[in-house]
Fold:
Amino acid sequence: MKAWWAVLESNQRPQSYQDSRKRAATRQTASVLISPTVADAFSRFLHSSSHRSAYTVTTLTERVGPFVDYLTGHGVQDALGITRDQVEAFLRAIAQGRHGKPLAPSTVYDFTKSVKAFCNYIADNLAPDDWRNPVRKLPCKPPQTVIRPLSQAQVTALLALSDQHSPIPLLRARNKAMLYLLLDGALRIGELLNARRADLNAEEMLRVLGKGAKEREAALSDETLGVVRAYLAQRTDASPCLIATERGRQMNYDGVKSLFQRWKSAGGEAFTGVRLSPHTLRHTSATMRRTAGMSEGDLQTFLGHATPAMTRHYSAFALAKAANVAARRTSPVGLFSGANPG
Structure:
């Protein structure tokens, strides 16, 4: 008996109506032979062609892995046996968080989006056409995003802390280059960690692979290029990675996250009210550029956003900041500063 994944492996993207019908028939045959287990479906989902970034795979593992564990714990082994009730029960349970502290709405949204992606993958690739997709029309509206970028003083403090708390010159140069690239290139952390030396071209651009395996080029300032080249000049390893560990190995997200946590702890009250992370530097870069007058369209292209929806959050921040400046300038309180109260 031919295994279900062997049947599906030979499938190609349908090129015509006839191909589409053949693909549907193959999926029907596969479901009759051997239905995919939840674990098998999860493995195929993680390693599908659309998930090329190691960071994306890690994130999906953290978001969908608990759902797989939940299903297994409730006796669900067949991927085609997932129901809407189980999906909703898991999301309610995960929203409770730990130690009595509920998850933030944005985190619940991330779990919901990832579970939907997993079930949709099953529906599109592993299930027969008549399978009842448990996440069909499942509400998944992103919460209102509040942008909290770093101030200029906080960026300066971060650069100083990274310099002070780097034990050797090589790591001091590496951390400085990393921060400059994150801020100047407005890079996602996965884009930075996957960047190679060869991706830094002669046109002062860094070629990166963004979400959905979309390639783009990020323009870098002369100052950033100088910082990066100074770091590369100190390295003696043969690693192709643009940013590497002391031994020349590729850095991972946990290592970078640990550095940011260390800097925030050392900074004390300098970072009160903000989340210090690599993505905060991306937010900071975007808001500073939008506030400085970069058009929304240009910013969307530079950030690699597929739609203008997220870019509009930076526009809203810039408008709110400009409105507050104007409100302060036109405050009527000054008209009565000499009057006696009451």
